[in-house]
Amino acid sequence: MKTQKTSTHSGCPLTFNRRHFLAGVGALATTTKIGMLDFASSLVAAESSPTGKPRVSVVFVRPDVKGYWMGWPGAAYDIPERQKDYTRILTSAAEEFDVQLDINPAPLADENAVNACLDQLKKRPPYGLVVVSMSLNQSWPHINKIAKERGDIPTIVFSPMGTSFTGHLQGTRDIPGVYVAATQDLDWLNYGIRMLRTKWDMENTRICIVKGDKPEDKKLDVIGTTLHYIPSKRFLEEFKKVKESDEVRAMADYYTQNARKIVEPTKDDILTAAKNYFVCRRLMAAENCQGFSMDCLGPVSKRLIKPPCLAFSRLRDEGGLGTCEADWNAAISTRL
Question: Whole-model pTM?
Answer without folding.
Answer: 0.80
